[in-house]
Amino acid sequence: MDLNDIYTQVILENSRNPRNKRTLEAPDIKEPGHNPSCGDEIVLELKYDEDKNKITDAAFTGHGCAISQAATSVMCDEIVGKTLEEAKEMAKIYIAMIKREDVSDEDLEKIGDAAAFQNISNMPQRVKCALLSWKTLEEVIEKDEK
Q1: Which one-letter DSSP state was computed for residue 131?
Q2: Is the pLDDT of residue 74 over 80?
Q3: Within 13 Å, how many C-alpha atoms sit on residue 108's CB side?
Q4: Complete edge-to-edge strand list for the sheet that includes strand 29-35
Q5: Which among 67, 71, 84, 123 has the fewest CB atoms less than 10 Å away?
């Protein structure tokens, strides 16, 4: 099995069974995200530790295509246990990867399974779907920093 097969498997598994598609009890942050070009909609929910240093849980609700749902579920997995600064850096790397900007192998390691979405950049009509959750995460962090 080559890397592309593994990546395809990650995307398929997370679109069929998005582990993080649920509602959190008393989330610290609840942020809607919407992709008007295709109708994908999510509501990202995050919980922080008491010092507000680390993300302790992440989940989402909403609807959309397999790519948006899988990307959101994988993102939720990858950001749990991370600081807001680390999550912000991960979002920056992921967005750069999808936009076909230069991303090092070291950077790809930082985003874990989210690297499975790298080939989405070859499908222009799916780029916004793959970016929805990560851009929503960026908005959450920006609001939080203000």
Answers
A1: H
A2: yes
A3: 13
A4: 29-35, 40-48, 55-63
A5: 123
